[in-house]
Amino acid sequence: MKRFATAALAALLLLTAACTAGPDDGDDDGQTPAPEPSQAPGGRWQPRPGTAWQWQLTEKLDTSVKVLVYDVDGFNTTKEQVAGLRAAGRRTICYISTGAWEDFRSDADAFPKPLLGEGNGWEGERWLDIRQTAALEPLMAKRFDMCREKGFDAVEPDNMDGYKNQTGFPLTADHQLTYNRLIARLAHDRGMAVGLKNDLDQIPQLVGDFDFAVNEQCAQYEECDSLTPFIKAGKAVFHVEYERSTSEFCDRSRELKLSSMEKKYGLGPWRKPC
Asked: Average pLDDT for residues 128-151, to the nearest whole number?
């Protein structure tokens, strides 16, 4: 699993509002403004390829970054902060873990112990038995209700590729497809867009179910071409690298029309976009 666990940090660091920038769809370094968002069937938001974004899950929320999209922690970001971003012309994505249990979340006790599998490598987190959709659906529905009630435009569900990891459960690709489609439906039923997080091997089957993609380190692992079905479908790919400098991946990102930036593993406010 190629992602940084912001779990312990996010639990300790409450996001609070900083100075709010005025509406501006461009990037903060003088780049060409990002495209205007489009609408998917049914009226929900669907970001287009090349849309500039910020991904911040820890530290004091910096709302001064001049990009259209903010991807922030669903639990720690307040309704007032989301409203402030909306008033400034931003779109907001609600980060929620849907494939792993986190012991520091306010609803942790609601998860029955039989759903909890092996640790996923990050403190306080354990894989979920995604085969148990009857038990998981109401739990995830409540989380998505929270995102909707706070005013988010979309959801970024994390840990969406358990079947490729040592979870403690005999998960298959079919189990993952079923669960990921359930997650997409829960978001769409609430009028929110939803992104496919990593899970590159199942993009051909899932590109029609998701409104955008979120990827970590496709350049480092030479996998970025796998994301092109989203671009061809007119859907944004929000991409970060942690161990490669922008000089190493931005040229290719521009060719592929990825929304790419360099971030530090802590996923604080610092960013270096392409």
From this structure: 98
